[in-house]
Design goal:
globular, alpha+beta
């Protein structure tokens, strides 16, 4: 089953098909600015979570096999550290990372997803941003949807747009 939703407030399109959730948005920004926002800890903490949530900590080792930890804090103060490993890094063009490993190729107890983020320059100063989240099972994808993917990711992406407009 395939579902598509467009959030007119953020001009994002999200969709669900099989085990994948996808978000697509165009930015008035160059790919390098979006890449920086995804890879520099000081920038990640400014946009990564939707309103009412915060990102108090981000650590990145942006290289294939490098680990990352991005900690999200909910409105009640509960922290959720998200550990992962970069699988593919193409500066200013593509990032692929997974939570199947927690660092140094140590397998995670319960892998949930692999994310592919691409930055495609469609004309000077305009970039198509695509985030494809591939889950291990359809049930995992459905859980991510219940967690608010279709609402939260567009909200965070709007914050990303504000951030890159200032870089």
């Amino acid at each position: 089953m395939s579902e598509t939703a467009t959030n007119l407030a953020t001009s994002c399109t999200t969709s669900a098909e099989g085990r994948d959730l996808t978000l697509v948005r165009e930015f008035d920004a160059t790919p390098d600015k979006l890449y920086r926002a995804w890879t520099e800890p000081a920038l990640i903490t400014q946009w990564f979570t939707p309103a009412r949530w915060t990102t108090p900590k981000a650590e990145t080792d942006v290289r294939p096999g490098g680990a990352s930890v991005i900690t999200m804090r909910g409105p009640d103060g509960t922290e959720f550290p998200n550990r992962g490993v970069y699988l593919e890094v193409v500066p200013n063009r593509k990032l692929v990372f997974t939570d199947a490993y927690t660092g140094a190729w140590e397998p995670a107890e319960k892998p949930f997803m692999t994310v592919t983020v691409t930055f495609e320059e469609i004309r000077p100063g305009r970039t198509r941003y695509t985030a494809r989240v591939s889950h291990w099972t359809v049930a995992d994808r459905e859980q991510h949807e219940r967690m608010g993917f279709h609402q939260g990711w567009p909200m965070a992406t709007e914050q990303l747009a504000v951030l890159v407009s200032r870089l």
